[in-house]
Amino acid sequence: MSQADRLESGAITADGGLDVSGLPSYAFGTRSLFWWATMGVIAIEGTVFVMMLVTYFYLRSIAEMWPLGVQPPELLWGTLNTVIMVLSVIPNHWAKHAAKRHDLATTRLAMVLALAFAVAFLVVRIFEFMALNCRWDTNAYGSAVWTLMGLHTTHLITDFLDSLVLAVLLFTGPLESKRFVDVFENAMYWDFVVIAWLPIYAVVYWAPRF
Amino acid sequence: MKNDDANVLRMQGAPTARDAALLEETWRDPPGLAGWFSAVNHKSIGKRFIVSAFGFFVFAGLLAAAIRMQLARPDNHLIGPDLYNQIFTTHGTMMMFIFAVPVMQAMAVYLVPLMIGARSTAFPRMTAYSYWVYLCGGLMIVAVFILRIGPDAGWFNYVPLSGPDYGSGKRNDFWAQLITFTEIPGLLISIDIITTVVKLRSPGMTLARIPLFVWAMLVTAFMIIFAMPAVMLASTMLIMDRLVATHFFNPAEGGDALLWQHLFWFFGHPEVYFIFIPGLGFMSAIIATFSRRPIFGYPAMVMALVATAFLSFGLWVHHMFATDVPQLGKAFFTAMSMMIAIPTATQIFCWIATMATGKLNFRAPFLFVLGFFFILLIGGLTGLILGSVPLDLQVHDTYFVVAHLHYVLIGGAVFPLFGAWYYWFPKITGRMMSETLGKWNFWLFFIGFNVAFWPMHHLGLHGMPRRVYTYPAEMGWGTLNLISTIGAVTIALSVLLFIVNVVRSLRGGAPAGDNPWGASSLEWATTSPPPSCNFVAPHVVGTREPLWEPSRDPGAPRYVTGLALNVRECLTTSAVDARPDHRYTFPTPTIWPFVSAIATTIMFIASIFNPWAVVWGSVLIAIPLVAWFWPTKEETRKHLALEKRP
To answer: For chain B, how many structural domains are there in total?
Structure first.
């Protein structure tokens, strides 16, 4: 280590020990271990979504018509849900920023609001499935559409449950400040689930119309 | 040592014997049977992982021996066609999915934290969960094989043979679920290794000072993250086609059989490289030590690893030259396949330069490394043949391919792995292995391997297709097959010698000491076997070869102090420069990862028989996962005592 490094990292004992007892016990962003884990999960699941989208277009490329003998999904519920999901980013980011400020009361409130949005998009998702105009076993088009929707719905459910457990913990304890980092990273994952929806929405609802 | 509030003890100044005793108490696995299932120490999990993978290697190896017995003479009826199909499928599937990829990750789970001077993997409970899921998956495939309902459509399980129309019973459902079983630990451990390497290195171990083996495992982890999802999705589509009548691979309803091949090989080709790249990492560690000098061309070596990883994603269609993909596409994939020779050659020339300018020490680990050069070279040359379309069409699906893939995988991965076992055995157990038995092990393996697999090149050129359970005498393949079988028996004998050597050395091997080979990386700076916390006082690193070359800055700190003694606390460092960042408290041992793994296993196996198991099984898994995450009051009290806001 250079001279500059040593000055920055603080106390060096007389016999060459680097005393780290004064360092913080947690950190936000790329400094946090779980930031890297969350990004890893996002990379894996993002790859799954991309592979499934590639599969959709691969099947479309060998089909004579698309969709295969059925009507495209109804636009109403899917579009409504896209709006709900995009709006859910607001309470979610509110929670993220409150967490970074260590503001427990606001974090709790924002998490509850975000969860209300989650309940809304899970309920609307049921109506989406009912308006797809195909079944998974209708043909390969139906299989691809249902798998895309199923994969994303799995993410909605896990994201909802993650957030629920975290929110309950924020109310009941036992609490330590590291939980604010968890809220921060939970919000990152939520963003991913919403952003991943946008291309899926475009493909499921609009690709069969062009 | 000082009393903080809430009974947190901290190390102060240089470590004392009492500090070491307290740390041992804090970091060791809990006692008793429940404690054994609760262990999260990366060394305990790593050892179990390595031993399990070796067990599956032996089982799959015995299946290979059965194949060779059946093929030893023409018109043999020792094994019938149905059982034969299950044997070669289970052999290939286990070797690729339950042995080769996991064993490399297992080695990383044990070694990476030690090599970078950390006390744990980043997510120790997740490491434990991954191991248990892996073990259950491996045992499932052994069980279904013994019950004679094992998968039978080959290790790459092509549709339509494996699909609902031709794949009978539940056999290929077990195959598809096995993939899920192995993907979960593969992916989770990749995340674990990446985070460990990025955040838990010793202060001063910048990216340019990471041991090459750690680089290899880091690159491998990234590859797994981007490659494994393809096969996970493919196997899910397959099992859905089989169980809930989706039509992904059904041409009658708009599906396509080649879709399977694309998705499988988009994973399958990188897979070859994430078996091979850790082998390259072992090579670099062993060659440096036994040439007694640092590896020549460190930056070129790192860049070659990264380049290999990128290129390996552009090769998958060369497994599909016999299909109707466009000619132009094939030409592109041929060019990409040839290009991979560039980074591979870079590394081989760097190793040759290292050995040429070093002072060589021909011990058992080094012999296995030298075996790599000979065998991999041949495997690489036949790879050039298979990478070009017209030649590939001639030998596609013949024994030539079988010979090639074994030369690449055994030469590129298994020889370095055996070298690695001889090399790190003293560190893991505290005892040396017998050098004499090691040399017998090597020579029998080396000769046996070539006797077993060299004739397969000729058999392939003479038209013997792979996966036939027997052949008529008039084909004239009898002699070469008999020679091959003799080679296989020799390999079996050499592996038996290895087991004998391990057992004998565990009992009566010479004590190893901290650094028996005079190596340069940090795992040799602690005792053999290492204490539960790895390092009583973590090191501060100033050079690339910390044990050979002291820091150039005489005033630099040498060790880390001030961490808690009775809480699992570690120092994290910044991602690139490895500057001290924050103190991180690791989770304690718990039974929940084991319980979660059992719940996962129940869900996976039940879903083969009833798709609704996915729903109730998810609930079953969610319960232990929440219990796993939920903090206890006692933990929180200790964390609060150590808490300091950034």
So the answer is: 1
pLDDT for the residue B429: 97
DSSP state of B542: -
Size of interface A-B (CB pairs under 8 A): 223
pLDDT at B345: 93
DSSP state of A69: S
- pLDDT score for B6: 61
Q: Measured between beta carbons, which residues in chain B are less than 8 angstroms from residue A29?
A: none
Name the average pLDDT for chain B. 94
Paired tokens of A62: 């060998």
Q: Which residue has the tokens 């609902």?
A: B164
Cβ burial of B359 (10 Å; 0-12, 13-18, 19+) is exposed
User: Would B405 be classed as within a structural domain?
Assistant: no
Average pLDDT over residues B45-63: 98
The pLDDT tens digits of the residues spanning B605-617 come to 999 999 999 999 9
DSSP states of B52-68 as a string? Answer: HHHHHHHHHHHHHHHHH
Find the CB nearest B225 among A22, A40, A52.
A40
A172 touches chain B (CB under 8 A): no
Q: Among A1, A14, A63, whose Cβ lies nearest the Cβ of B254?
A: A63
**Could A55 and B240 be called an inter-chain contact, meaning their C-beta atoms sit closer than 8 Å?**
no
B131 belongs to a structural domain: yes
Domain range A26-209, CATH class: mainly alpha
Instruction: Give the one of B256, B583, B631 whose C-beta lies nearest to A62's C-beta.
Output: B256
Entry pTM: 0.96
